[in-house]
Design brief:
Layout lengths: L1 H28 L10 H49 L12 H9 L18 H7 L7 H8 L1 H17 L1
Length: 168
């Protein structure tokens, strides 16, 4: 809340500074009009001068606005050209090709490739039959097993049962 209060004070001070700067600038640029004591012809001449000045400023404003519109149109056209250029060169979808290691090396090295890479030759063989024989399958009444394993005693029995086969 202190930061918000400080920011509000700074913002208010900034608005006051902008207003005073605007007033100072306008007082420098604009001379005050003294219309009292002038004859009708002098007032008409003054109005003509002011009208000419307004026309000059309006012409400048129109020219600047036309330049700005031209620039924005040019920017839009360039953006469209960039998007068109990006769209013309679409990358084709790549297909997955299965290549063996030997074929890849032959493609990269050409005729220099003489070593065949058999990646499966150095792998260890695992006997699946041994792992299946170690686990005896017990078929029994599951209700007795659930009653026996309920509570903390059951958890201890499970822990002890899991610990004993590996210890022997």
């Amino acid at each position: 809340s202190l930061m918000l209060a400080k920011a509000k004070e700074e913002w208010d001070q900034e608005l006051v500074d902008k207003q005073s700067e605007k007033e100072r600038y306008l007082s420098e640029r604009i001379t005050p009009l003294h219309t009292s004591g002038l004859s009708l012809s002098q007032l008409q001449d003054l109005c003509r001068e002011l009208h000419e000045k307004v026309e000059i400023v309006d012409e400048e404003r129109y020219d600047i606005e036309a330049k700005c519109n031209h620039n924005t149109r040019e920017i839009k056209d360039l953006k469209i050209k960039v998007l068109d250029l990006r769209g013309k060169f679409k990358r084709p979808p790549l297909r997955r090709v299965r290549v063996s290691a030997d074929a890849m090396l032959r493609a990269l090295l050409g005729s220099k490739h003489k070593v065949s890479m058999d990646l499966r030759a150095n792998l260890k063989s695992v006997k699946k039959e041994d792992t299946e024989k170690e686990r005896p399958v017990e078929v029994g009444d599951w209700r007795k097993n659930v009653e026996a394993m309920s509570g903390m005693e059951g958890r201890k029995k499970m822990f002890d049962a899991a610990k004993s086969p590996t210890g022997q």
